[in-house]
Amino acid sequence: MRAAVLDVVGGSPHVTDFPDPTGDNVVTVTLAGCNPVDLALASGHLGKPEVPKVVGKEGVGFTADGARVYFDSPPAPYGSWAERTRVDPEKVYPVPDGVTDDVAVALGVAGLAAWLPLTRHADVSAGQSVLVLGATGVVGAIAVQAAKILGAGHVVGAGRNPDALAKAADLGADAIVTLGGDDDTAALRDQAGDGFDVVVDLVYGDPFLAALDATAPGATLITVGQGAGSTAAVPFSKLMGRSHIGHLNDLMPSRILRQAYDELTKLAAEGRLQIETTRYPLEEAEKAWRAQSEGPHVKIGVVI
């Protein structure tokens, strides 16, 4: 079968022939997702992978009995950027009618990273104020919409790219804050009212520290990503009375992931979530890989 294969840790995948998976739990892939975590896994920063292996953590396809499904984390050496892949039955979820393959993939790694912090780590249903730190990416765009759907009273999107921030406003953010100026803390405080109750932090580093200073007593901060830096010198006194949670989809129980994915796809089928997507054919896998490394503000899918 044709697949995008990683031969060297830290390299880029190339399209070549790869042995077909065997066994009962095999999915014929129609669309694979591309995520920052795919690049991190290939780089060896999350543990050295055994190569050669097919890249891709998530995708959509059909089971042997014709069911359309979303799948996550195929067992090595298989991945989603291939005509077929072996899957873990615990990480296979049905995709309802009315949800396109592109949206179904976007609601996986990215969608869950936005939805779970707001539904399993925090409660915004009573009109709480929410800051989405890093609202310019796919996860951030979904988080802005999710916060409004869940009942947040005031949602602020923050990030560095003005054009992408304008899209966050179109998706329902009550205010936007452009980071990277002279005083990010002051800029966030200007939109925080009495302080943010919940922060969905997708970047960490210095922006996290600025956001922390704009929170209310009792606030909950959930860090999901580290695009702005893997460390932050957080004084203990500033965490007093506040909760800081590090979120990782893969650490959640499988039943919670399945339930959350079902919640998201129902919202998408009702037309309540908008997600910008783009596609690359499998034969342009290296081009898709480069596009992801440049920090796109859209969800990349690879057509198999």
Key traits:
six-stranded parallel sheet; seven-stranded mixed sheet; alpha/beta
General description of the model:
With 304 residues, the protein is of the alpha/beta class. 30% of the residues lie in helices and 26% in strands. The protein contains ten helices and 16 strands. Strands 3, 5, 6, 7, 8, 15 and 16 form a seven-stranded mixed sheet that branches. It has a six-stranded parallel sheet with strand order 11-10-9-12-13-14, sandwiched between helices. Strand 10, helix 5 and strand 11 form a beta-alpha-beta unit. The mean pLDDT is 97.
- Measured between the Cα atoms of the first and last residue, the distance is 11 Å
The total strand number stands at: 16
Shape estimate: globular
Helix content: 25-40%
Average predicted confidence as pLDDT: 97
How would you summarize the topology of this molecule?
Layout (H helix, E strand, L loop, with lengths): L1 E5 L7 E4 L8 E9 L1 H8 L9 E2 L3 E5 L5 E5 L11 E3 L5 E3 L6 H6 L2 H13 L7 E5 L4 H13 L3 E6 L2 H9 L4 E4 L5 H6 L6 E6 L3 H8 L2 E9 L12 H4 L3 E4 L7 H16 L7 E5 L3 H9 L5 E5 L1
Parallel strand pairs: 9-10, 9-12, 10-11, 12-13, 13-14, 15-16
Antiparallel strand pairs: 1-2, 1-4, 3-5, 3-7, 3-16, 5-6, 6-8
Brief write-up:
Helix content is 30%, strand content 26%. With 304 residues, it is α/β, with parallel strands linked by helices. Strand 5 and strand 6 (68-72) form a beta hairpin.
